[in-house]
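Q: Predict the assembly, please.
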Amino acid sequence: MRVLITSGPTREPLDPVRFLTNGSSGRMGIALAEAVLRSGGEAVVVSGPITHQYPTGAEVHRIETTQQMLEKCTELFPSCDGVIGAAAPCDFKPVQYSDQKLTKAESDGELLLRLVPTPDILAGLGRIKKPYQWIVGFALETQHGKEHALEKLHRKNCDFVALNDPSSIDNTQAKLEIFDVHGNRVALLHGMKSDVAAELLKIALRK
Amino acid sequence: MRVLITSGPTREPLDPVRFLTNGSSGRMGIALAEAVLRSGGEAVVVSGPITHQYPTGAEVHRIETTQQMLEKCTELFPSCDGVIGAAAPCDFKPVQYSDQKLTKAESDGELLLRLVPTPDILAGLGRIKKPYQWIVGFALETQHGKEHALEKLHRKNCDFVALNDPSSIDNTQAKLEIFDVHGNRVALLHGMKSDVAAELLKIALRK
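A: Predicted assembly structure:
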């Protein structure tokens, strides 16, 4: 069993100093990599910049932007049995990147930043998924949770989607509601990310 | 001797998940706090979110945004002999904050983000500086380094300014050019942040 795990945030730079991101710590990705290794599988991690350590034995690929995460995952997914999309990729990026640091003086007050959506990583993998492969998506929502989560599940060709909320970000605990393709809630996982990750992996392998 | 140190990045949120920030690790602030403590002084740190640890004995105040950093520093500066502005505060923030996570579906493609400058922390402290107090600013520049650094020194009422470039961000080493109010380069410090911090503190205390 070879499992691809996306983990951590991505960064979308405005200039050599500033970027758009989120507070993802990569702890869920670390916990999932540990769960895969404990079960005897190979953990292949594509990770944005985080300061915590992945377990020894995991195959870790470091990237910065969402586009880079997509490219690396597209390259690695065909050799894996499934993917768990635990990363929090930045889903907007500045249209323009400034080679030089934007300064207050130059910008003369207000700055108008045009953002465009970044490519959707799991949707990209969903399009090349083989019948034997499985995909578990994550949906982090602040409203209409189940509805948004199931929309994502179908659009991204996932087998399961794990719904959570911003309280899970940079937390040692997680609370996940797991839905299947029929819209059934197959589990409510609540506790330390290490325990939640182990349960989530079991569910993924049911497919 | 009681020294105020600003440290780390700040975050400017768009919504409950996304924010604008930079890659500052807080390592220079940590090194400065250690240098102050080693010299027998009190280290008062106002820090944005970082994962590295401040030394035991430092008085650490945690904040998230630039406005919060300004407020905390304005409160603490009158009780200090000087301040070293080693933080990398985010100097633009979104005009609007969305209570709910902005979604790709709702935003229908492009998102226009209006950013306004955040308050300048050291300039704020420069306005309330007493004659016995000193201020060391940092300037992180990608072009016109000395010119921009000296403009900042004067506008912020600093006694010294430390010029560096993006290579210092999230690095264990630093390379700083130190300029005084006359525009003279009084030092070039290059090496481990712990050594650079100790030298920078000595220069600050010359005032």
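The first helix of chain B runs from residue 27 to 38. Residues 110 and 178 of chain B are 43 Å apart (CA to CA).
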